[in-house]
Specification:
Shape: elongated
CATH architecture of the largest domain: 3-Layer(bba) Sandwich
CATH class of the largest domain: Alpha Beta
Number of domains: 2
Order of helices and strands: EHEHEEEEEEEHEHEHEEEEEEEEEH
Distance between the termini: 40 Å
Helix content: 10-25%
Oligomer: single chain
Number of helices: 6
């Protein structure tokens, strides 16, 4: 099957236009783009709204995904955008300021998945949503896929954030091989840091655990001692760098502890900006690790017509898992739209029979 390509300019929505689609995908990362890909390959009209701020932007490469291991995140995203566009999908760059159900919608410019395919005609009772961007552009759609990802919240330690994604890391599976055998420090933030220490110990013999006020019981201390993990209980004052390179941590008593890599378990907050009108249920993660959208099988939520996929609902999933979740959600959305289309067609046919 051949596909139509579309240039970047065709993705731009005019400020005075409302664009209508089968599905609006909020979030242009792995989950959102893969969900969109499944939908456009099923000839659904799709608009992807991308804020342009992916979680893994600071990282030099993505790891742990077969065939794409070592690929820069930006390259993966660009490939994904091209593929969605190639099937007629539209990528829109902007910030969502509101998203809400809109049962009564003004007629809008249709976005066709392929020029030769007419969009399915939904009945008056079909679900409908309206998404507004900060610059006034508006998208209406029959269904919504939320794939906004999460925001990593780092401890408030001076200079720490400047090295995030390079010498300051959080995931041994994402970055571990690249920092193997380096002097690594675990900057504790809570219970999750204990497990993180054991995982990073697998990668280096030189590991220091900075408690940062967290309490270690005797069993944990014994385990750390058995694995050769040194414990520092004096609080950290700042990250030290030299010519832009992380060299260690300065403690509040002035002591310098040389380290080349700092591992920290961040608080992971699902990105919710502009989505309040959808009234999606949320819940706190265990051990004060953050907050996520609640979803069930295939990314379904308690809000009819709205799905969630990727880090926004599963904050610890890597790129491969997020992409798979997006694909599953996209397929599920298409399946339910197919049922809605059949119901609408049947209603029209019965109405015609009655009129005759």
């Amino acid at each position: 099957m051949s596909v139509q390509t579309s240039d970047h300019g065709s993705d731009l929505l005019r400020e005075d236009k409302t664009v209508d689609a089968d599905v609006v995908v909020i979030g242009g990362g792995a989950a959102g783009l893969n969900g969109a890909l499944m939908l456009v390959r099923s000839r659904r009209s799709v608009v992807v709204i991308d804020s342009g701020t992916p979680r893994n932007a600071p990282a030099a490469a993505m790891h742990g995904f077969i065939a794409l291991d070592g690929t820069p995140p930006s390259e993966i995203i660009e490939r994904g955008r091209w593929q969605v566009r190639a099937y007629g999908g539209r990528i829109v760059f902007g910030e969502v300021i509101s998203a809400e159900p809109a049962q009564s919608v003004e007629p809008a410019e249709p976005v066709k998945a392929l020029e030769s395919v007419e969009p399915a005609e939904a009945d008056a009772g079909d679900l409908r949503f309206a998404v507004t961007l900060a610059d006034g552009r508006r998208v209406t759609a029959r269904r919504v896929l939320v794939a906004t990802g999460v925001r990593d919240v780092l401890p408030d330690v001076p200079v720490l954030a400047e090295h995030w994604g390079r010498s300051v890391v959080h995931c041994p599976y994402c970055h571990g091989w690249e920092v193997r055998d380096e002097p690594i420090g675990i900057l504790a933030t809570g219970p999750a840091s204990l497990h993180q220490a054991l995982l990073f110990r697998q990668l280096t013999d030189d590991l220091v655990y900075f408690t940062q006020g967290t309490v270690l019981n005797e069993d944990t201390r014994a385990r750390f001692a058995a694995r050769g993990i040194r414990i520092v209980e004096t609080d950290v004052r700042e990250v030290v760098e030299e010519d832009g390179v992380l060299t260690g941590l300065r403690l509040v008593d002035g002591t310098f502890v040389a380290r080349r890599v700092i591992a920290v378990a961040t608080r992971m907050q699902a990105r919710t900006e502009g989505l309040e009108g959808l009234k999606l249920p949320m819940e706190d993660l265990p051990d004060d690790m953050g907050r996520r959208f609640v979803s069930a099988a295939a990314g379904t939520t308690d809000v009819p017509g709205v799905w969630v996929a990727g880090n926004a609902t599963d904050p610890t999933s890597q790129v491969g898992a997020s992409a798979a979740a997006g694909a599953l959600a996209g397929a599920h959305i298409n399946a339910l739209l197919a049922t809605a289309d059949a119901d609408a067609a049947l209603a029209v046919a019965r109405s015609a029979d009655t009129s005759a």
